[in-house]
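Exercise: predict the fold of this chain.
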Amino acid sequence: MRHLSFIRTKPRLATKMVIALSLIILVSSTITGYLSYSAHLDIAEKEISKQFAQKVEQVSSRIDAKINEVYRFSDTIIFHPTVTDVLSKSNEFKLIEYENLMNFNDILNNLKLNLDYVYSIEMTDRFRKRYKPTHSTEFQELNQSTYDKIAEALSKTDGEMVWQRETYHTMSREYDVIVAARKIKNEKMDVIGQLLLVFDSRQFVDVFDDVLANEDDIVNLYTPRGNLLYSNQDKSFLTSTDRSEKGNNVRTEMYDGERYLLATNDSGISNFRFESAMSLQGLHNKSQTIFHVSLLSGLVSLAIAILLIAFASYRLLGPLKTVVSGMKSIKEGKLDTRIKVKSNDELAYLGNSFNEMIDFIQSLIKNVYQTQLDQREAELTALQAQLNPHFLYNTLDMLRSKLYLQDDFENADLVVALSQMLRYAIEPASTTTTIKDELHQINNYLTIQKSRFEEELHINMDVDDEVYDCSIVRLLLQPIVENVFVHGFRDQVDENKIHIKAYKQQSFLMIEVQDNGCGMNQAAIEQIYQRRSRGEKTNGIGMANVIRRIALMYDDPHRLEIESEEGKGTLVRLILPIEMEWNDRGERDAS
């Protein structure tokens, strides 16, 4: 007997293994790094978007509160009786008492002190005569162009406030102000003048600090008319004044090759629009670090893997080469070849398995003649099994003839029905038949059942002539009818009724089987529907198998429907396609 020993030689597969596994590690590291980078960036952007939207909503609420404060402040002025009295007399060129005028001045000065960010309060009558409290004289008057723009804007309003931003330079300082103006009306809703409030714009800017995390971040504030009231930077993609979409809107925008997170919020009361954009470049740079670390770790792992693979392949592929040599010897017909095992590891198992395989092959060769004899005997057994159904048919025919000779026609008919049922059922269930043949099979089954129930079973069949030749899968109705007697009539002995109806409805073949049995609840119906979807096994070809066969043989919307109520019977409805059997010309008709 030839013996082959494990000899350590330089494996030829080592280089291929090193290259293949190195590529796997490199590609895996690259994919892992990229997926980690993408996942981290996606999660971070979603979290930042959520926080950014909340901050923008909070800032918008503060702006809303600030605007409402201005409205309340203006309401206090324009609805004050002294103010309306002074403006009414001014419009009528009446003399305003000194005491009344001083009272008017004190009221405006006190109101101005209530809001420290108010620079000036100014009112004009219909003839543009200006009234200004003494505490407002420290702020210079507005430019005539500003008055003209405000007057034009107020002419298009009916009492709401208009807003304007202006910048003024003096010898001592620069004023960046916001001007708010609205009409003043008397009790008869006649316009008697207008009110101008000049505010320090920094009072509005301070509320933006929560969203200005970086110097590249942008904020814009638009008035209800779409005019830009404040902007800390000039970014063209934020100048949209489209007010068709209300509420919060968070999205990403590209500007000058840089990605921004843009949030928009329309305040619910003042109808101001606040827009803010935050640069995502820093987040992208930090996320790329994850990708670079993954690539670096992959390269380090690759270098280590090359060394380990080279060493392992040298130790392991040598014994494998011995196994390959043994297989070549077996291929040449040298069945006495055996591998000599010198280790006690997985390779030893491989060598022992090789030797056992050769022993098994030799055993198979010795037993091949006995196998041929067993195969011939199996063929004879199979032939005998094919003859058994014919033997059963012949026996039933002989029994039927004997019953006819004895004038026992009722039992003879039962034997005929049973024989026909057996012949029909022995065919494959997946083959098709006609409604006529399927109903004939049902009649055979009902004939046998009628001998059991006698006069207590009432059968009614209502079948349209046009559906007799329609094609149907074999043995689709019998399990439904059989289910009536197994379950529906199990505790019922009197007045058992079953009604079978077949008809066309539009492009569907409708078959209904209705009984007056015990019925079932909705839970039992759902259990029948779901039994197949849960993969449960069922005996024979019951209701669950009928549902499954319909699903396999026909497309939607063809199905089986069950309508039932406990104590009131059950209606099972088959909704199938209308398909006709082959006609005399060898063509198949279909509707």
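Check your answer against the key: The longest strand covers residues 174-185.
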